[in-house]
Amino acid sequence: MKNWLKEGIQPTVVLVDPPRKGLTESFIKASSQTGADRIAYISCNVATMARDIKLYQELGYELQKVQPVDLFPQIHHVECVALLVRAD
Description:
By secondary structure, the protein is of the alpha+beta class. The chain has helices at residues 2-7, 25-33, 46-58, and strands at residues 13-16, 38-43, 61-69, 79-86. The chain has one domain: Rossmann fold (3-Layer(aba) Sandwich), CATH 3.40.50.150. The model has no long low-confidence stretch (mean pLDDT 93). It comes from Streptococcus oralis subsp. tigurinus 2426.
């Protein structure tokens, strides 16, 4: 992500699907600095997803939609997909 910023690449959408521990604060800051209009966030851990979404909100994004997806009905884990939109 930092290389994208150095090279002037400006995506309109950033798609993230982090491990259970979530995103790092430095990645969240870097991805928000790209100027992307939307961030699609896929997660298997709602606690770290909520933590990361809060940071995105502090950096100018609004949570527009969250949708749980039961990809593995035989187990208790549920994936969640969220759409964040730049508030500017």
